[in-house]
Design a protein that fits this description.
single chain, 369 residues, alpha+beta, 25% strand, globular, binds guanosine-5'-diphosphate
């Protein structure tokens, strides 16, 4: 039996198989580490040498255990969501786990949404969606970790609410939690030393602790992967195409009932019943949209998926799940959300259907814009 080795930085069990999970170390680094008697996982190594954090995933059970343990502390919870994929960012049951601890809700990737969207409207909308999920955040901050904007606003809010307590940063993977923490560190390092990056590594198993000046800690926790998201079914190249990196330019389509819109080969929107009206599509600017007749759409897809309708690329079509249909009757302005891909705003009453690969949800919510 091989001996179990733990990272001396965070205590995670060292493994060399899965890059995105806790304790990953490349074999070469592991061998060097064993020689020198100091084995760090890649995450702690990068943190020590480059002040760079990246997110790792943990199993659902471990994640629940972690949330539970946070509920038993007296702390401020900073909950990071991706505004572009709000539904996909939700951690179900979070409100039960946090107990009486205050939650500061951070809407990240604000740079992706159209600039015309007013901040006040966006935060109000987030508050309503949070309430629906049973969460009552003490405040909401909008950030773009990528552009490093609003980092001082965020730190001010954290200071205001933590009242000397530790701060836990939670979020599912891919919401930009690591980018955000790195941006916080770089915003504070050398400025007023709110966070003393030089003394990291008081880390404990599966968490990374960054000390504030008063000795309390900013604690970064691993995320969980939401398997119903589109990202799970796409290769790296396709993912680049479908994850917006800059401001989305909404595309408006005037559709009659009986028309279909394909979002590449990844999803499909049918307008089934209602008067001729405008539909606004919010997806990555790079994604190809194709309008066709509803009647022949299923055959059209079969013929063109992987070629005209892509992603998925031709060689990925056989592994790509079939599209599954969700029908909705619309009464008020509504977004039809394709988890992780974007949404289509339906302003007028009517009947529509959204199709997504089996396993990915199509849900409706009150229109954001
Ligand atoms: P984590 O898994 O939550 O730690 O997420 P990462 O920090 O690794 O970010 C996931 C992806 O989102 C990366 O491709 C980032 O470049 C991107 N990202 C993070 N923050 C932002 C942001 O504020 N705006 C945009 N457009 N992309 C972001």
């Amino acid at each position: 039996m091989t001996e179990e080795i733990h990272c001396i930085g965070c205590g995670a069990l060292i493994q060399t198989e899965n890059k995105d999970e806790m304790g990953y170390t490349p074999v070469s680094a592991l061998n060097k580490g064993i020689e020198s008697g100091e084995v760090y996982c890649q995450r702690c190594f990068r943190l020590r040498h480059y002040n760079d954090i990246y997110d790792v995933a943990m199993s659902d059970d471990d994640f629940l255990r972690l949330l539970n343990s946070i509920g038993q502390t007296d702390s401020l919870i900073v909950y990071v969501v991706d505004i572009f994929d709000f539904n996909g960012s939700l951690i179900s049951g979070l409100h039960r786990f946090v107990g009486d601890n205050p939650v500061l809700l951070v809407g990240n990737k604000v740079d992706i949404l159209p600039k015309s969207l007013k901040k006040g409207k966006l935060t109000q909308w987030m508050r309503e969606r949070a309430h629906e999920a049973g969460l009552h955040p003490i405040d909401i901050v909008l950030t773009s970790a990528k552009k490093k904007n609003a980092m001082f606003d965020l730190l001010d809010e954290i200071e205001k609410y933590r009242k000397g307590r530790d701060v836990y940063v939670v979020g599912v993977t891919n919401v930009g939690k690591s980018t955000l923490i790195n941006a916080i560190i770089s915003a504070t390092a050398g400025v007023d030393n709110v966070i003393t990056t030089s003394q990291f590594p008081g880390t404990t198993l599966d968490k990374i602790e960054i000390p504030f000046e008063d000795g309390s800690l900013l604690i970064d926790t691993p995320g969980i992967i939401h398997r119903h998201q589109m990202a799970h079914y796409l290769g790296k190249k396709d993912l680049k195409l479908t994850s917006p990196t800059k401001e989305i330019k909404p595309k408006v389509y005037q559709l009659n009932a009986g028309q279909t819109l394909f979002l590449g080969g990844l999803a499909r929107f049918d307008y089934i019943q209602g008067a001729k009206t405008a539909f606004v599509v919010y997806v990555s600017n790079e994604l190809y949209l194709h309008r066709t007749k509803l009647e022949t759409a299923t055959d059209f897809y079969k013929t063109h998926v992987g070629e005209l309708l892509k992603p998925p690329a031709k060689d990925e079509v056989t592994d790509f799940p079939e599209l599954v249909r969700f029908e909705y009757s619309i009464k008020e302005p509504t977004d039809l959300v394709f988890a992780g891909l974007g949404w289509i705003t339906v302003k007028d009453p009517g009947v529509v259907a959204g199709w997504a690969p089996k396993g990915v949800d199509v849900v409706i919510r009150k229109a954001l814009i």
